[in-house]
Specification:
Layout: H1 3-19, E1 31-32, E2 40-44, H2 46-54, H3 61-75, E3 84-88, E4 91-95, H4 98-111, E5 124-128, H5 143-159, E6 162-169, H6 174-186, H7 196-213, H8 218-229, H9 233-257, E7 263-266, H10 267-283, E8 288-289, E9 296-299, H11 300-303, E10 313-317, H12 325-339, E11 344-350, H13 354-366, E12 375-380, E13 383-384, H14 401-419, H15 425-445, E14 453-454, H16 457-460, H17 468-482, H18 501-511, H19 513-523, H20 527-546, H21 554-577
Parallel strand pairs: 5-6, 5-11, 6-7, 11-12, 13-14
Antiparallel strand pairs: 1-2, 2-4, 3-4, 8-9, 9-10
Helix pairs in contact: 2-3, 4-21, 5-19, 6-7, 6-8, 10-12, 12-13, 14-15, 17-20, 17-21, 18-20, 18-21, 19-20, 20-21
């Protein structure tokens, strides 16, 4: 935002260094001065002093850095944007003119096509997330991966990365064979009702109950698995038809959540590729084939010459030749890098799979695939529901995602109706949908990825606390001010009055938005953005209460209108990056 002014100062520092025969570094690292009522930039000269010391001069580095800072502060010409310049220790601090800083920040937001959007980085990242299993219910246990992965993708794209969104369906395995067996034997010819995912989940739970009641049925399921392995057309056709029922049901839920994907993988797609890769690993001497008595394994610690146990043993194929998760994950990682030129492949999978992924990628690295080091596990913890609900697809004791969404909309509708009964029925429904979905998503993102989320309706729908409705309502307040004027002045305005402390705080928050985006992208942590938006909403609400807009004097009114519009833009942009809508009214 102030790169031009920063570069001008750097050029003047170069001149001062040349006059005093001080070597100039390749670049100066600038950072914001901790805000305490005024804005500033700071750089240090410790590297410069250290370089002088390395060149043979006998000097005290901290003392020399302080001398250089004082030298620059005493000799640099006066600056329009930086009326106050000081040396502090080995640092040079440049303090902005508050009026010019405020005008620049607000005008930048109003004129930017997308304020805070990073320049293209020329890096392609694939983010794989959600990963539901077909022939099962789509339950709340899948929710955090879907919401976290979507938000990470949105933030990475906004930060300047090229992002490929991938989903990896579990569409084959014992759970699918068991479902097909139950369908063939007890439900042949049936088609799913409108609520397809619930019906699919019910049939899976039913299959498990039947087998638990009569374990001898396991032989029929194993026989069906053999027919799948032989790719018998009757079984393959039935599998394709029933798999599509699940996929269509999943897509309906993704549409509701406003989540999309660029590439869908399925474990059936990589199952046989994985078996081929296992054979290659056996031929290379990386894997040991202990069949028929035991499985195919990779003794990672032995291969790496490690005396202490770290990677352990990875089982990559069952003794009967059927695939495991590892079989398919080896092939999936390879397929991704064959299809795309990736700078990084990120797997959004729960924390319990951490060792598994370390084993898979280390196996690929040993096998000579250099891209294996570009694979990264973005782990997350699970979601607890009120009452410590334990979800198990086998027993059918799951909280279905569509039920959670339905309840969120219903609860949000009640709150909206109480707060704004004059809205039309359609408006109430639209607002309830936006508020309800926001209430579900925000708690999933407003916590460290590797910490358990305990979902609670009261906090999720809190209009006065750290929750999506509170931030959405700040956006609505900004919108309510703006709709009372014909238009917001478009020309840049310097505030020629003493800024209210609430204005200064709000402008400071707005100015941080680009840096917050970069930080959230670099660490894959949407919580940096959730925390920022909560602070931004609090700051706007304080401004709303303390600094009159519409009744202020004209020159004050015009700048404050621009500040309201800038706040609205930032709140809406931030919520969108979390996958949350910004209602006009609430």
């Amino acid at each position: 935002m102030f790169q031009k002014e920063q570069k001008l100062v750097e050029q003047q520092i170069v001149i001062i260094f040349k006059e005093h025969k001080i070597p100039f570094p390749e670049d100066l690292d600038w950072s914001p001065v901790p805000f305490s009522g005024e804005w500033g930039l700071s750089t240090s000269f410790f590297k410069v002093a250290a370089a002088e010391a390395k060149s043979g001069k006998s000097l005290n580095v901290p003392q020399r850095a302080e001398e250089i800072a004082r030298l620059v502060a005493d000799n640099i010409p006066s600056q329009e944007y930086f009326p106050r310049i000081e040396a502090a220790g080995g640092y040079l601090n440049l303090y902005f003119d508050s009026r010019l800083f405020s005008a620049r920040v607000v005008n930048t937001v109003l004129t930017a096509e997308l304020f805070g959007k990073g320049d293209p980085k020329g890096e392609t990242l694939m983010v794989e997330f959600s990963q539901p299993n077909t022939h099962k219910a789509f339950h709340v246990g899948h929710l955090r991966s879907a919401i976290l992965g979507d938000a990470v993708c949105r933030i990475l794209e906004y930060a300047g990365f090229d992002v490929i969104r991938a989903n990896y369906y579990g569409d084959m395995g014992l759970h699918v064979i068991k479902w097909l067996w139950n369908y063939q034997k007890f439900h042949s010819g049936e088609t799913p009702p409108a609520d397809a995912t619930r019906w699919m989940g019910d049939l899976y739970a039913e299959a498990n109950r039947r087998v638990e009641e009569d374990p001898t049925l396991e032989s029929e399921i194993r026989e069906l698995y053999g027919r799948w392995d032989r790719q018998e057309p009757e079984i393959v056709d039935l599998w394709k038809e029933t798999r599509q029922w699940s996929v269509d049901g999943f897509q309906d839920l993704y549409d509701v959540l406003d989540i999309h994907f660029d590439r869908f993988y399925a474990n059936s797609e990589v199952e046989f590729l994985g078996k081929e890769l296992v054979n290659e690993l056996i031929q290379k001497g990386i894997a040991e084939d202990l069949r028929p008595d035991d499985a195919v394994i990779v003794r990672l610690d032995d291969l790496l010459g490690l005396k202490k146990e770290k990677y352990r043993v990875l089982v990559i194929l069952r003794s009967d030749g059927t695939a495991l998760y590892a079989t398919e994950d080896l092939a999936l990682a390879k397929l991704k890098f064959e299809e795309y030129r990736l700078d990084k492949s990120i797997f959004v999978v729960d924390v319990r799979q951490s060792l598994h992924f370390q084993q898979v990628w280390k196996t690929l690295e040993i096998a000579g695939f250099s891209w294996a080091e570009k694979c990264e596990h973005l782990s997350y913890e699970l979601v607890n529901l009120p009452g410590n609900v334990v979800m198990a697809s086998r027993e059918g004791t799951v909280v279905l995602l569509e039920d959670l969404i339905r309840e969120a909309k219903s609860r949000a509708f009640d709150v909206v109706e109480e707060k704004n009964p004059d809205l039309s029925q359609q408006e109430k429904n639209e607002v309830a949908r936006a508020v309800g979905l926001g209430a579900i998503k925000f708690p999933m993102l407003d916590r460290e990825n590797t910490r358990i989320v305990t979902f609670d309706w009261d906090s999720a729908l809190d209009f006065n606390g750290q929750a999506a409705p509170y931030i959405q309502y700040a956006h609505v307040r900004a919108n309510s001010i703006l709709k009372k004027v014909d238009e917001v002045p478009s020309e840049a305005i310097d505030p020629n009055y003493e800024l209210d402390p609430s204005e200064i705080s709000l402008i400071e928050n707005i100015s941080q938005f680009p840096a917050v985006i970069q930080n959230a992208a670099n660490e894959y942590k949407p919580l940096h953005l959730t925390h920022y938006l909560y602070d931004m909403a609090r700051s706007f609400n304080a401004f709303y209460r303390q600094a009159p807009v519409l009744t202020a004097d004209p020159e004050v009114r015009d700048f404050r209108l621009q500040l309201v519009e800038a706040s609205r833009i930032v709140l809406a942009a931030g919520l969108k990056l979390l996958g949350i809508e910004s209602p006009r009214v609430m």
